[in-house]
Amino acid sequence: MTMSKFSAYNFSGRKALIRVDFNVPLNDKYEITDDTRMRAAVPTIKKITGDGGSVILMSHLGRPKDGPTEKYSLKHLVAHLSKLLGGAPVAFANDCIGKEAEDAAAKLQPGQVLLLENLRFYKEEEKGNEQFAEKLAKLGDVYVNDAFGTAHRAHASTAIIAKFFAVDKRMFGLLMEGEVSSAEKVLHKSEKPFVAIIGGAKVSDKILIIENLLERATDIIIGGGMAYTFMKAAGGKIGKSLCEEDRLDTATDLIKKAEAKGVCIHLPSDSVIADKFAADAETSVAPSNNIPDGWLGLDIGPNACEQFANVIKRSKTILWNGPMGVFEMEKFQHGTKVVATAIAEATQKGSFSLVGGGDSVAAVNQFGFTEKVSYVSTGGGAMLEYFEGKVLPGIAAVQS
Ligand code: AMP
């Protein structure tokens, strides 16, 4: 394998301006409750400091509406970042542009790290303002985009800024490289059979991704709440299961398109049904197209588990987005676990598996499968848009 642009670059004596995604959840004492996104950036930071370069980190945090707000200050992250970097000091600038940021950046010595204040304290960030991007660009000699989670936004720091750096001085960081190459492998270089497993609550959220995958996948498994709209569209009885009445035609249309393209759509033959949407509901099993009145399907049933696992185990490329049932409740998590287990088995036998999108990532983490799949994406919305076939501004700006 050829070395990536980032790995091959020698950062010695350079100031690298890195767009990271440090949009971590904080509790009301400003403690970080999940540092996954911060940990994901550490290898990129360490490569640069290890080379003898210095690092300037910029990120957004939350959705501040009116400029600087204590709640959204990135200063709350400094101590933890220093800990993640093995105790290396982390300097902080109270502003992301202007004199304070420029002085702090100018003072940086090889191996040192500076964190800038929240980019979204300026409205210009989300507006993709050029002058703002240019002011940020002044702070570093090299631009590194390592924020896959915001790659689908054409913001100043994620996309617009790239044009102020020569082609050889703008690149992806290690996290972004991993995300982009995994996604490309699935979408453009997939080994067949290629199964896409799509679940979750709503058909409306997943129409574009299913349409795009019809061009590429061999099989599409549809589970979760969205399966019942398909069942009803085909004339099934679904009780009070989740259904988007205004998407019945879309579901019929997708099935027809799949038939025309020779893509096999798999719907759950049976379901675990419940008398109410609750963790302590009465449960039973019924055909997914014959659910009694007053009951609702909250997980795929035992036959569907077997049916889906078989398709997954014979696939060489696997994409998973969205749970098979209400996995947050113990009674309805079996289907999601079976799918995760089948993916792990296929992966162990050499298939490539990518898990992307908030809730399937949460399920994989919760059930302990993170290390057993080929890649777990950190970018929910960005990953979804990528698989919808859209050009992501954050990727395009660095590549063009
Ligand atoms: P999404 O964000 O669209 O991927 O949807 C994820 C959510 O869908 C999770 O919170 C699941 O609990 C929910 N979900 C999955 N299956 C069902 C179902 N059969 N009925 C209702 N909600 C479901």
Structure description:
- With 400 residues, the protein is an alpha/beta fold.
- It folds into two domains: 5-176, 3-Layer(aba) Sandwich (Rossmann fold), CATH 3.40.50; 190-387, Rossmann fold (3-Layer(aba) Sandwich).
- It has 15 helices and 17 strands.
- The chain has helices at residues 5-8, 36-51, 78-84, 98-107, 123-127, 130-137, 174-188, 203-213, 227-233, 248-261, 302-313, 334-348, 358-366, 380-387, 393-399, and strands spanning 15-19, 54-58, 90-93, 113-116, 142-145, 170-172, 194-198, 219-222, 237-238, 264-266, 270-274, 283-287, 290-291, 296-300, 317-321, 352-355, 375-376.
- Strands 3-4-2-1-5-6 form a six-stranded parallel sheet, with helices on both faces.
- Strand 7 (194-198), helix 8 (203-213) and strand 8 (219-222) form a beta-alpha-beta unit.
- Helix 8 (203-213) packs parallel to helix 10 (248-261) and helix 11 packs parallel to helix 12.
- The mean pLDDT is 96.
Features:
elongated; Rossmann fold; six-stranded parallel β-sheet; binds adenosine monophosphate; 37% helix; alpha/beta
**CA radius of gyration:** 23 Å
**How much is the average pLDDT?**
96
Question: Termini separation (Å)?
Answer: 22 Å
Give the number of helices.
15
Helix percent band: 25-40%
Largest sheet: 6 strands, parallel
Low-confidence stretches: none
Spatial arrangement of strands, main beta sheet: 3-4-2-1-5-6
**Which structural class do you get from the secondary structure elements?**
alpha/beta
Query: CATH superfamily membership of the largest domain, which one?
Result: Phosphoglycerate kinase, N-terminal domain
**Proportion of beta-strand residues:** 15-25%
